[in-house]
Amino acid sequence: MIRVGQGFDVHQFADDRPLILGGIEIPHSRGLSGHSDADVLLHAITDAVLGALGKGDIGTHFPDTDPEYEGADSAKLLREVWLMAEREGFSLGNLDATVIAQKPKMVPYIQQIRERVAGLLHGELSNINIKATTTEHLGFAGREEGIAAMAVVCLVSPGK
């Protein structure tokens, strides 16, 4: 059985926070604003996994109105969702994700992010693709107001 899910998230920049993307801290003058650590990439991946499972979205499972998730580590939230997938008999087929940001430049961090995400999803590194693009100075990302991310995940299961 094969299940596919997609996810998308966006957060605006904030001056008083570290920038966390893909479960790692990236040197930058600003972080992202949000109830949790605002890891836009892991949020998109989490939504993609939940979509493949047919289990709603990140806000349903970890609402930003719940003080328990204030400042939450998005890697822990993704691990929790990934355990749901594994309990249902799924493993990772592949993941393809894109970070949309004018700055910071992501190329120096892509490999480290791939390794971190592979560990979180108990997947092979060769099945994790992370890429980045700018918007050529157009829109909110191009004006450096925030960062967006999108992800598509394929889950596989031997039966059902």
- Which series of helices and strands comes N to C? EEEEHHHEHEHE
Q: Structural class, judged by helices and strands?
A: alpha+beta
User: What is the number of domains?
Assistant: 1
Look at the structure and give the CATH class. Alpha Beta
The appropriate CATH architecture is 2-Layer Sandwich
The amount of helix comes to 25-40%
* Fraction in beta strands: 25-35%
Within CATH, the superfamily carries the name 2-C-methyl-D-erythritol 2,4-cyclodiphosphate synthase
Average pLDDT figure? 95
Seen as an oligomer or otherwise, the chain set is single chain
Distance between the termini: 7 Å
Name the poorly predicted regions. none
| Radius of gyration of CA atoms, rounded to a whole number | 15 Å
Strand order of the largest sheet: 4-1-7-5-6
Count the DSSP helices: 5
CATH topology: 60s Ribosomal Protein L30, Chain: A
Let me know the number of strands.
7
Main β sheet profile: 5 strands, mixed
